[in-house]
Amino acid sequence: MLKVPRPRLTYANVVATLALFVALGGSSYAALKISGRDIQKKTITGQNIKPNTLGRRQIKESSLSAVPRALNAAKLEGHTAESFLVRCPQGTIPVAGTCIETQAHSPAAYGTAVYECGRTDTQTAAGRRLPTHDELMEALTHEEIQLASGGELTSEVSASTSEAGRVNDLYITEKGGAVGLTPDTFAGAKSYRCVAPPLN
User: How far apart (Å, rounded) are the C-alpha atoms in residues 166 and 112?
Assistant: First the structure.
């Protein structure tokens, strides 16, 4: 009968077997059991986080400061955004993207009214002008503005059919926007109000 050789238990065999169990069982145990409660504060660094995995749900964006090179990104030539908000000059209200005077001027011929509006605020702005029919009609929907007695001039004119070289001006006769034509003469004088450009 042949003898079956007995396997020898050596130190090397034992160490190799233990190492195999630790390698296989230990890592899987760690992967299954470690949670956020097991991680101590300030022990995870940026190098341990996969790039582009954190978003606004994980990061409170309001707590982030401006990038050093972008500190003036919210300014234009050193001015803040608030300083560029559009506002209307005193005595005017915003209407249809412009600023219209709340008080009408005394009656004047069309040419005189154009001149008087144009020389207003020329030191600080581009001057004023007469309103278009649409602008004046919209302005009359505001409580602050009441149509002057006898109607008000607009900037819209047409050639006079009775006098060569003269113009007739379109003026609003009623709050609803009804119009009439008046000659550019002293006899055709009507009240008027000016349109001012918005200020920065």
Answer: 14
Residue type, 113: A
Distance CA 19, CA 92 (A): 88
The answer to whether the CB of 183 falls within 8 A of the CB of 166 is yes
Tell which residue, 188, 102, 167, 179, has the closest CA to residue 134.
179
Length in residues, the chain? 200
> Is 16 in a helix, a strand, or coil?
helix
Burial status of residue 97 (CB atoms within 10 A of its CB: 0-12, 13-18, 19 or more):
exposed
Dihedral sign, CA of 87, 90, 93, 98?
negative
> pLDDT tens, position by position, for the chain (200 residues)?
555 566 666 766 666 676 766 666 555 555 556 676 777 777 777 777 777 777 766 777 767 776 666 656 666 666 665 555 568 888 999 998 899 999 999 999 999 999 999 988 766 656 899 999 999 999 999 999 999 999 999 999 999 888 888 999 999 999 888 999 999 999 999 999 999 988 76
Instruction: Tell which residue, 80, 40, 56, 185, has the closest CA to residue 48.
Output: 40
Q: Retrieve residue 60's tokens.
A: 């409170």
Helix (H) or strand (E) holding 167: strand 167-172
